[in-house]
Specification:
CATH superfamily: Flavodoxin domain
Shape: globular
CATH topology: Rossmann fold
CATH architecture: 3-Layer(aba) Sandwich
Number of domains: 1
Largest sheet: 5 strands, parallel
Number of helices: 5
Order of helices and strands: EHEEHEHEHH
CATH class: Alpha Beta
C-alpha cells in the first residue's frame, strides 16, 4: 500500500525525478510524474541518469527514480549510476549498519517493462534493486510502481507475451494513472 506525504509538506517540498530511457517508455512515465507533481504545486527537478551524477539526492525530500527492465535488471547506465552513488555515499559515511532512515527523505521507484516472457516478474527485481539503493542511503521507499511499456523493435514481444497485446503502452490511461498517483502522493494525507 502506498504511503503519502502529508499535505502540509507540499509547499516547500523539494522533489527530483531521475530516469533512464532508451525507447521513450520510461521518459513518458517520468513526464507523467512531473505533470502530477506540478498539479500538486510541486516543481520537480527532472534529470536523466547521465545528467544526475553530480547531484546530491539528500538535497531533495522526494526522489522518483525510473528505469526499464532489461533481462530482469536495470540497464547498464543505471547500474553504473547506482554503483557510483553507493560508492560515494559509503565513502562519505552515509551508509550505516541497520540503514537508519534519514528524516524527511523519501523515494519512489518506477519500472517500465514489457515482460514478454514472464510478465511483471521480469520487472520486480529492478524495482527491488533500485529500492534497496535508496533504503541503504536512508530514504524511506514509499512505493514501487510498475508500468507496462511496448517492446520496441519486436512486434512479437509486444503481442505474444503473457501480457497480451501491449502495443502503444504506456497508454494515455497508464500515464494518467501515474500522474494521478504522483499528485495524490502529495495532496492526500495518510
Amino acid at each position: 500500500m502506498a504511503r503519502t506525504i502529508e499535505h502540509h509538506d507540499a509547499p516547500g517540498l523539494r522533489a527530483m525525478i531521475v530516469y533512464w530511457s532508451a525507447s521513450g517508455n520510461t521518459k513518458k512515465v517520468a513526464e507523467a510524474v512531473q505533470r502530477g507533481l506540478m498539479s500538486a504545486s510541486v516543481q520537480p527537478m527532472v534529470r536523466t541518469v547521465a545528467e544526475a551524477g553530480g547531484i546530491d539526492l539528500y538535497d531533495y525530500d522526494l526522489v522518483f527514480f525510473g528505469a526499464p527492465s532489461y533481462s530482469f535488471l536495470p540497464p547498464e547506465p543505471v547500474l553504473r549510476y547506482v554503483k557510483e552513488k553507493i560508492r560515494h555515499h559509503r565513502d562519505r559515511g552515509d551508509i550505516k549498519p541497520g540503514a537508519p532512515k534519514v528524516p524527511g527523505k523519501r523515494a519512489i521507484v518506477f519500472v517500465t517493462y514489457s515482460g514478454p516472457h514472464t510478465g511483471i516478474d521480469e520487472a520486480i527485481p529492478v524495482g527491488k534493486y533500485l529500492g534497496q539503493f535508496f533504503a541503504h542511503i536512508g530514504f524511506d521507499v514509499l512505493h514501487e510502481w510498475y508500468i507496462v511499456g511496448e517492446f520496441h523493435g519486436r512486434e512479437d514481444l509486444s503481442t505474444l507475451g503473457r501480457l497480451g497485446d501491449i502495443r502503444g503502452r504506456p497508454s494515455i490511461e497508464d500515464l494518467a494513472n501515474v500522474e494521478r498517483q504522483a499528485a495524490e502522493l502529495v495532496l492526500k494525507g495518510p
